[in-house]
Amino acid sequence: MVNPRPEDREEVATAADDSPATTGDAPTTEVRLRRVRGRFSIQSKLITMLLAASIVSAAIVGFIGYQTGQASLRNAAFDRLTQVRETQARQFAVQVTNLKNALLIYTSGPAMAEAVQAFSTGFNELANATIDPAEQNAILDYYNQELINPAERATGAKLNLNVLLPSSNAAKYLQARYTVAAARPNGPPPPPDPTAWGAAANRYNLFFQEVVRLFGYGDALLIDAAGNVVYSAKKRADLGTNVLSGPYQQGNLHEAYAKAMGADRVGYVAITDYQTYHPAADHPIAWMAAPVVSGGRTVGVVALQFPISGLNDLMTFNGKWQANGLGATGETYLAGTDDLMRSNSRVFEENRQTYQRDVVAAGTPAELAERAVRLGGTTLIQPVGGPATRAAQRGQSGVLIATDYLGQETLQSYAPVTVGPDVNWSIVAKIDTAEAFAPERVFTRTMGVAVTAIVILDCLAAMALAQLFVRPIRRLEAGAQKVSRGDYDAMIPVRTRDEFGDLTKTFNDMSRLLGIKDDLLRRERRENAQLLRSLMPESVIERYRSGEETISENHQDVAVLFADIDGLDALSSALPADQFLTVVNELVRQFDDAAERSGVEPVRILRNGYTASCGLNVPRLDNVERIVNFAIELQRIVARLNDEDNLQLGFRAGIDTGTVTSGLVGGATMMYDMWGSAVDLAYQIQAGGAEPGIYITGRVYDAVHDTHRFTPAGQHIVDDVEEPIWRLAGRR
Predict the structure, then answer these.
(1) Do residues 682 and 655 lie in contact, with contact meaning Cβ atoms separated by under 8 Å?
(2) Do 425 and 455 sit in the same domain of this protein?
(3) 652 and 681 belong to one structural domain
(4) Same domain for 514 and 614
(5) What pLDDT was estimated at residue 416?
(6) pTM of the prediction?
(7) Are residues 525 and 604 located together in one domain of the fold?
């Protein structure tokens, strides 16, 4: 059939449109479709196609670019926040370690033990000290003005003065002389203390105050073996009290003291979680305590108040949040297992009124917010429980998006931090998503403008190029259709001398080469397929064709046979090469036939050996029985060949069952093989056989001893354990 030229086809279509298909005046559906196709030219179709392709391509590229850019920007925000969190966690760990090391240094020397003993001796001598009425009234005024009234205003709870007042003469003496004076730094200094305790204070007071100042501790206490606070650097209301029976026996100081006194090793430091502490005006206090040892026994405990101010300075970056990558809304804080803060809120540090307004609006009870403002901190007050702290309490770390304690959607990076053996906190770094993802919005606008510009340019280019490409493309399209149908003899006439002419020539050359290559490929595929089927299982062939570089499979309950033919080397020397090869080929052929009848899979043929398996690629319930019967058949084949050809070949085989691995090995030369402990053991027991025969392991014996007879053949060491080896004696 000869195709008409385009102009001829248009004339035919026009004639068809003008000729009615029915007797009526109205045109038929076919005529109307022809008219539509006539008006919608190839050029218009090409323009439409190019426009559609350009728009779709731009949309796809824009979408992929947007998704990729958005993911990159979000990952960058996650990474920045995680980096801040990890930096803070490392600095916090360093701070805790430094404080612990400092405490251990001060407690390890004899000076600390001497100090504890000196203050303890002085404290005990004050048991009979007398307190005059003026001193007693001074103590009462101190407790009312400095402790009771501020605490009641801060908490709203009524406190029992009689419970808090010192009960022992020693405590009364020390608080009247030192505690009251410490609360009034501008008042007259206390008179000289002639007691042994005063002498100890004159000797050690400056040392302990320097320790407190140098490391930022809230206070330093010395507690004797009886639980008495025999010394306080800050001389607060806990001076002279007993941590075991006094007014603060229920607090975390008692906990730290008990752990330190009960420590069974040198260098132990007990660390407690924060707890409100009445002598510190109900501010949160955590303790670090270490035992003081003298002469092999613990004579007391040094307890240091964990410096909350230093912790807050660390977590709040000393107010330099923006300089540390947290922008206008980011912060880091610590939280305990009770989901309460262990450091101050950034909003609280910046503006307490704003903090109070925002946290109450977010759901925090108003009384908690007011208490935080009164006490000057959010530690142990502000709840921050959420998915981040819960995950950190489970020992997890990561990033998520959740609503924070201010009611804002935030990006949060969390991780657990260990303060002490029994104190585990969470560290959270967060920033509002509106700020963290602000670059994402800029990127979105930029991508929208870029994609729109690309679409407009694509439209203009499509309209300009459609006219130039339409006719040569038609010819090439016709030729490509023929080639796609397998007609590689199709040739397109070269009508121009421009690039389309060169393209047409190239197309014709390509068509001829494709025909030649198609024939070669078909032949090569047939040869390769035949070769691969002879070398490896079909499942491995499929994986090898798919391009996998490393092909291996693990198989359970596979029976493995490793057979060796004795005498082949001597036979090769005695016979001509062609006769020897005939014998070997016949032997392998019979082996393979027997394997096919027995349902056994040959794996590898060696110079003197034959490796086979059962259950490797085709799972079988009776794989062990089959492989044993197969070994018997191989033994018969060798014996029959000896009788027929007057040969003296010996047969020795080893059988084991278990887990094996199969796959392709080698580089340029690929080979299908199997390996594993079962293969190794099968080889070893056949190689170790003293005489020809079939040798099996204990696992094979357990499976077939009911149907075959065996005799013991020695022992074999497997994983440093001797296992019995059996020699097949016949069928039962």
Answers:
(1) yes
(2) no
(3) yes
(4) no
(5) 94
(6) 0.54
(7) no
